[in-house]
Design goal:
Strand content: 5-15%
Number of strands: 2
Radius of gyration: 14 Å
Order of helices and strands: HEHEH
Structural class: mainly alpha
Oligomer: single chain
Number of helices: 3
Distance between the termini: 20 Å
Strand order of the largest sheet: 1-2
Shape: globular
Helix content: 25-40%
């Protein structure tokens, strides 16, 4: 996702296909609830490190790779999630937006 697409999503806010999750101390169970919700619809995007109002607070850079690994491990478990989920995790490094 390029920075312009991210800026657009943050400006529009949460929708039926976009969820913002704080994830201050790691994955919280509501992230998995969003995954289930998206599986029951048409999919969607979960942006971690973002407050409900679209404010980007980020996650600890050193924690991000492990968060992704653990997230994949949980959602790849067929006893927890079925059908199989298509996942395309992406770490977006700190960027500075120039708001018009």
């Amino acid at each position: 996702m390029d920075h312009q697409a991210l800026k657009s999503i943050l400006t529009i806010g949460e929708t039926v296909a976009v969820e913002f999750k704080r994830c201050g101390n790691g994955m919280e169970h509501d992230v998995y609830e969003s995954v289930c919700s998206f599986l029951n619809r048409f999919g969607g995007d979960i942006l971690m490190g973002v407050l409900d109002d679209g404010t980007v607070i980020g996650v600890q850079e050193k924690s991000a790779p492990d968060m992704i690994k653990n997230f994949i491990r949980v959602i790849s478990n067929p006893t927890m999630f079925s059908p199989t989920i298509y996942l395309s995790p992406e770490i977006i490094k700190k960027c500075r937006f120039i708001w018009d």
